[in-house]
């Protein structure tokens, strides 16, 4: 682990890695970066209160030391970040967080183990999962990046996914995953060979890539001496893949924070029953469904205003979610006022635009700063339309489940 003071940040490398903000040797926050230099420097920008929020500003006033560790790829930074957070439990990473939506990578305790993602709140009821857990990694706060990471790992070490069955004839998807090399063909792969693959995945997820590469090199030379060249060549390809991880999707996701992000919120219910809220995201002019979020409204009463207040308060607890440049609200002046009040109370300075609808629920006018509306009208309308669609869909799903329970 490298160290530097906050006075010489430019010495940080333009490489992926993990950074640790500390106060008197106590770790306050751990984060990952595509570029350690650019990411750490961003915490010292003048617009920190807008881009990061008041809790991060307060933390930056306290830190007096920065540690960092370079990694070979963004994928390894993602894994290292989760490992260090779990080990040190920094206050700024964990305080006040609703971790129920975080994911864990689970390797199941089965004859042919599966490698799957499980949300934190489901792990609290492990008896209902339908399988036993052999290994567990996480929590990981970034759902999209974690899914992309597993895709990369799976191309190097094929594994059995959540819905892949052992006999490929039983399910079309299992057969397809075998055909494209994501899942082993269990009709030809022995239990011991598959167990090796699982051990390799476990080592990688533990951050032991260097040891894993040495182990694979030893196995490759053993197969070569036995003149089992097909097996030796397969391992050679795995070593090459580990040494040249192509995590373009992760880099793109990490760097997208430089583009304008708009979040839109809407509430849906029927006579105050099965009330839900949603958040949709437009980033760089593009719909970003991987960042959409659902909220089951917990508080009774309060109408749409109370529900909107709850959704925004819960959303703004998530420091690990990138903050928006603009917040769009479906409604009129009352909705706009409550959104601005929540933001002010929590110390955020994010402009709010309200989209007022006519009797046919078509946009009639906007409430908010005219220059922001003029520059972003298209994206505001798309974000608002997506929020309405997503909220209605979520409400119908919840209503159907409630009906079936009764």
List keywords for this structure.
406 residues, alpha+beta, GIY-YIG endonuclease, Nucleotidyltransferase, domain 5, 3 domains, seven-stranded mixed sheet, four-stranded antiparallel sheet, 15 helices
**Mean of all residue-level pLDDT scores:** 86
Share of helical residues: 40-55%
Derived from helix and strand composition plus strand pairing, the structural class reads alpha+beta
Distance between the termini: 57 Å
Assembly form of the protein? single chain
Radius of gyration: 24 Å
The total count of helices amounts to: 15
Brief overview:
The chain is of the alpha+beta class. It has 15 helices and 14 strands. The longest helix is centred in the C-terminal third of the chain and has 36 residues.
Walk me through what this model shows:
By secondary structure, the chain is an alpha+beta fold. It has three domains: 2-97, GIY-YIG endonuclease (3-Layer(aba) Sandwich), CATH 3.40.1440; 100-249, no CATH class; 259-405, 2-Layer Sandwich (Nucleotidyltransferase, domain 5), CATH 3.30.420. The chain has 15 helices and 14 strands. The strands form three sheets. Strands 8, 9, 10, 11, 12, 13 and 14 form a seven-stranded mixed sheet that branches. It has a four-stranded antiparallel sheet with strand order 1-4-2-3. α10 (209-225) packs antiparallel against α11 (229-243) and α13 (303-315) runs parallel beside α14. The longest helix is centred in the C-terminal third of the chain and has 36 residues, at 370-405. The N and C termini lie far apart (57 Å). The mean pLDDT is 86.
């Amino acid at each position: 682990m490298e160290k530097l003071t906050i006075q010489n940040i430019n010495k940080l490398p333009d490489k992926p890695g993990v950074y640790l903000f500390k106060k008197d040797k106590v770790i306050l926050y751990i984060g990952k970066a595509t570029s350690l230099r650019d990411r750490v420097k961003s915490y010292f920008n003048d617009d920190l209160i807008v881009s990061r929020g008041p809790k991060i500003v307060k933390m930056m006033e306290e830190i007096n030391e920065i540690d960092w560790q370079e990694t070979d790829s963004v994928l390894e930074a993602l894994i290292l970040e989760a490992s260090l957070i779990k080990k040190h439990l920094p206050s700024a990473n964990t305080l006040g967080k609703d971790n129920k939506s975080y994911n864990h990578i689970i390797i199941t305790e089965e004859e042919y183990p599966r490698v799957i993602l499980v949300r934190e709140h489901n792990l609290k009821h492990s008896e209902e999962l339908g399988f036993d857990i052999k290994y567990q990694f996480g929590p990981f706060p970034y759902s999209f990046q974690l899914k992309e990471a597993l895709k990369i790992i799976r191309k190097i070490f094929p594994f059995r996914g959540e819905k892949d069955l052992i006999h490929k004839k039983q399910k079309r998807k299992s057969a397809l995953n075998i055909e494209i090399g994501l899942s082993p063909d269990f009709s030809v792969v022995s239990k011991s060979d598959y167990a090796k693959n699982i051990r390799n995945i476990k080592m990688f997820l533990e951050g032991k890539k260097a040891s894993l590469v040495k182990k694979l090199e030893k196995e490759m030379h053993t197969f070569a001496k036995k003149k089992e060249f097909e097996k030796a060549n397969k391992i050679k390809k795995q070593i090459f893949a580990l040494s040249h991880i192509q995590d373009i999707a992760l880099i793109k996701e990490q760097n997208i924070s430089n583009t304008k992000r708009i979040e839109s919120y809407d509430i849906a219910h029927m006579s105050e029953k099965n009330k839900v809220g949603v958040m949709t995201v437009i980033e760089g002019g593009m719909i970003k469904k991987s960042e959409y979020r659902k909220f089951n409204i917990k508080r009774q009463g309060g109408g749409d205003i109370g529900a909107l207040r709850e959704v925004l308060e819960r959303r703004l607890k998530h420091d690990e979610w990138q903050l928006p440049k603009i917040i769009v609200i479906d409604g009129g002046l009352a909705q706009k006022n409550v959104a601005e009040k929540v933001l002010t109370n929590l110390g955020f300075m994010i402009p709010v635009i309200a989209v007022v609808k006519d009797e046919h629920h078509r946009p009639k006018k906007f409430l908010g700063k005219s220059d922001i509306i003029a520059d972003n009208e298209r994206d505001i309308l798309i974000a608002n339309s997506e929020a309405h669609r997503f909220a209605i869909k979520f409400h119908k799903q919840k209503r159907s489940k409630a009906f079936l329970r009764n």
